[in-house]
Write the structure tokens for this entry.
Amino acid sequence: MDPSASSVQFHLVDAFTDQAFSGNPAGVVVLDRPAEAAWMQQVAAEMKHSETAFVVDDGSAVKPLRWFTPTDEVALCGHATIAVTHVLGGHQVYDTLSGQLTCTKADGWIEMDFPSDPPVETGEDLSHLLNGTPATFTGRARENLFAELESAEAVRDLRPDLDALRATWTGRLIVTAEGEDFVSRFFGPGVGVDEDPVTGSAHCSLAPYWAERSGKTNLVGTQVSARQGTVRTEIRGDRVLLRGQAVTVVSGELYV
């Protein structure tokens, strides 16, 4: 693609919310043919959202979809996938770095079928990352450190050492505690996102973790960032269904 030849559609969508200026904002760039990775990374850096999604909508049944933070391409992003499906509507199948993902928009909700990623207990000491906040469980998921804290208040009040986290394995951390079902926050300085407001992919780990402890397969997660958002989850074998809403804030054309 020669991105200087024409404009492309661009949307700003707040995901995992039904109210503008809450949830997690994502850029959505709709392409009619694949673009160069370097160009997509430049666009994501310009947009400065935690993720910008690039989807090729050329009429194919399976649409290529990629996600970029301001500094890195990532293998899976839930809120930006919600945002893309909100823009495109209907039933969508995406070809991604995490395999084929199926999403459906109906009755104001978007359902995503994602791979389950339960954390494995390691017992490692994360106190240096948590600034001394006690953890009752520590482990690792596929790409994230994972810690359960003693209370929802501890999750809300946490001020992690982002410099220390940036220097770890992948520089990403999920923290959680019991809530009405559960609460969480996500920190990713290793991929250029100090704190992500609402993180769909993190719920691929959170849902199976809390399902095992509660005995329930349907749970509601609240990500208690400053913007806050809600993710409905359902365990189906080795898959996790994530459900959320979305609101378009800006639509226009991207000129480069």
Remarks:
- The radius of gyration is 18 Å.
